[in-house]
């Protein structure tokens, strides 16, 4: 792994924040990391999910991130994944995403979203300590992407794919999902207007909303 940083991005400051920004401070770089947080991606997949980023710029950013050890090529050579240094950004990127969602208002007409960004939003928002005795799984179907959230006595985990036995299953579109996370549309308003539908335990909607910070805590519920 290369230990230095590209000269054109070196702030020449003996400071951890400055050193970090030397690596990830360029435009688009953290969004590349965002795409790889959910697993390896091929070049064309990255390009498709980074609308507005040209292919030459993506190639340049990936080259620099590989030199620095943030990104690696897969062994088969057909895709990219985060290296250990890149994995170390996970908590910081999720925290920044959680902070940034509070800055979102209604989306403008030229803005795009992707269903898999919903999984990252859930990872950023979920806090099992809000219901520390809860043991439950929730499934989300966002456009053509399915993922689930498992809450287990103070811990949370997320994964792609359907849940084995979810307390509830939610279906919506990506824009509605982000609007709910941003607080510009309440989950129960989305239910009432048909922008979101669910199957399963009705009370699980409130518990899930609580875990995601979208509702007040309900009364105590025994663990399963």
Overall description:
By secondary structure, the chain is α+β, with helices and mostly antiparallel strands. The protein folds into two domains: 7-88, Orthogonal Bundle (Arc Repressor Mutant, subunit A), CATH 1.10.10.10; 117-211, SCP2 sterol-binding domain (Nonspecific Lipid-transfer Protein, Chain A). It contains ten helices and seven strands. The chain has helices at 16-24, 29-36, 43-48, 55-68, 84-87, 90-101, 117-125, 174-182, 187-193, 202-211, and strands spanning 71-73, 80-82, 135-142, 145-152, 155-160, 168-172, 196-200. Strands 5-4-3-6-7 form a five-stranded mixed β-sheet. A two-stranded antiparallel ribbon has the order 1-2. A hairpin with a 2-residue loop joins β3 (135-142) and β4. α7 (117-125) runs parallel beside α8 (174-182). The protein starts with 15 loop residues before the first helix and ends in a 13-residue tail after the last helix.
Largest sheet: 5 strands, mixed
Specify the overall morphology: globular
The strand order across the widest sheet is 5-4-3-6-7
Q: Number of DSSP helices?
A: 10
Mean pLDDT rating: 90
**DSSP strand count:** 7
**Helix-strand pattern, N to C?**
HHHHEEHHHEEEEHHEH
Oligomer: single chain
Structural class: alpha+beta
CATH superfamily of the largest domain: SCP2 sterol-binding domain
Name the poorly predicted regions.
Answer: 1-6, 217-224
Q: How does CATH name the architecture of the largest domain?
A: 2-Layer Sandwich
Radius of gyration: 19 Å
Number of domains: 2
Helix content estimate? 25-40%
Strand content: 15-25%
């Amino acid at each position: 792994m290369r230990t230095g940083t590209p000269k054109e991005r070196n702030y020449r400051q003996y400071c951890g924040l400055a050193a970090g920004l030397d690596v990830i401070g360029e435009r688009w770089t953290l969004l590349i990391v965002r795409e790889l947080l959910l697993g390896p991606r091929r070049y064309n997949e990255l390009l498709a999910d980074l609308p507005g980023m040209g292919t030459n710029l993506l190639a340049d950013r990936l080259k620099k991130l590989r030199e620095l050890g943030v990104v690696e090529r897969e062994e088969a050579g057909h895709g990219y994944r985060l290296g250990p240094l890149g994995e170390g950004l996970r908590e910081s990127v999720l925290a920044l995403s959680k902070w940034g969602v509070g800055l979102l208002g209604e989306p403008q007409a030229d803005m795009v979203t992707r269903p898999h960004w919903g999984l990252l939003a859930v990872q950023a928002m979920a806090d099992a300590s809000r219901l520390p005795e809860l043991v439950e799984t929730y499934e989300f179907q966002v456009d053509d992407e399915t993922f689930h959230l498992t809450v287990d006595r103070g811990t949370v985990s997320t994964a792609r794919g359907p849940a084995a036995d979810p307390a509830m299953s939610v279906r919506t579109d990506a824009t509605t999902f982000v609007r709910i996370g941003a607080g510009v549309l309440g989950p129960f308003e989305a239910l009432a207007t048909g922008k979101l539908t669910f199957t399963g335990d009705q009370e699980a909607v409130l518990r899930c909303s609580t875990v995601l910070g979208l509702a007040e805590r309900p009364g105590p519920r025994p663990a399963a």
